[in-house]
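Re: iron/sulfur cluster structure - here you go.
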Amino acid sequence: MKQKFLDLLIDVKEQVLFLQELGVENLAVELPESLIQSSKFKAQGSKPEVSQEKLERFVPAEIPKAERPQIAKSEGNQSRNSILESTKLSRLPSLSKRNSTFSNISNNQTQEPAREKEMPKKTTEEMPSLFGDITQTLPESTETIEDIRLDIGNCTRCPLWEGRTKIVHTTGNFEADLLFVGEAPGANEDAEGVPFVGRAGQLLNKIIESIGLKREQVLVGNVNRCRPPGNRTPTLPEAHTCRPFLMREIAVVRPKVIVVLGNTATQNLLDTKVGITKLRGEFQDYFGIKVMPTFHPAYLLRDPSKKRETWEDMKKVRDYINQMK
Ligand code: SF4
C-alpha cells in the first residue's frame, strides 16, 4: 500500500512537471484512483498473450526448425520482442558503415526516371492488428537512406511540388528507436527544409524531452514532404504518392516505436478511416512495429487541455522503449 502511494506521488509529480513545461496553467486533477487505473498498472495488465503459432510468423523461414524459438505461455510479449530483436532489429544496416553522406545530396538533384518501390500495401481489412493481431512483418530493406533520397530527387510525382520552396525530408538520428511522423510541412518547414521547426515543432521538442530524449536522438518526418497550398490537408492521392518514401525509410531504420501525430498522418500511415480520438493511447501495429497515434502538436497549441492525454500516450512510448532495452 505504501509503495503504491509512493508510485502514485511520483506519477503525479511527473505529470504536473510535464504539464507545466507545456504551459498548462489550469489543471483539473483526476482523483488518485483513476490515475492508478489509467496509468502503468492498467497498461501492464492489458498486454495480449502471443501464441507459438503467431510467433512463427516473426521467424524467417530459413531458420531451421530445431533453432526456432519456443515460447512458454507465461512469456507473452517479452518473448515476442526478444525474437523480433534477434531476427530483425539486430540485422539493421548501420548508417556509419555506409559510404555516402547526406551532404552530397541536394534538393535540386533530379533523378529521371524515378523508381517507385512501394512497400506491401495494407488495407484495413488486412490489418486486424489495428485491433490486436499482427499479420505481417516488415520485409528486409536492401537500400539505404541515401538511395531513397536520390530516388526522391527533385520530386514532381504529385501536384504539391508546384507550391514548395524546399522538400522537407525526414531528419534526425537514422538509428533511432523512435520516429515521429506528421502530416506535411507548414510554412516554416517549407522555408527551412526541416520538419517541425515552427511553434508546433518547439512543442514537439518539449514532448520529446519529456520522455528523457533530445530531438537529435529521434527521427522526425512527415507523410508528405512538400507543403500543401495554404496548409490544407493533403489529398489521399497526394498522401499515397509520397508515403512510399517514408515506408522505405521505416524499412531501413526499423524504429522500435512510431509516434504518429494527428488524424491525417495516422490515417495515411495505418491505412485506416478510424479517427485519432479512437486510436490514440493504444499501440497499433505497422508491420510488427509499435505505432502510437497521438495528437498533433499544432492541435495541442489550439487546445492545450489535450496535452494531458498526449503525456499519457508518451509515457506508454517511453515505458515500451525502456522495456525493449
Ligand atoms: S509531396 Fe512527396 S510525392 Fe509530392 S512532390 Fe513532394 S516529395 Fe514528391
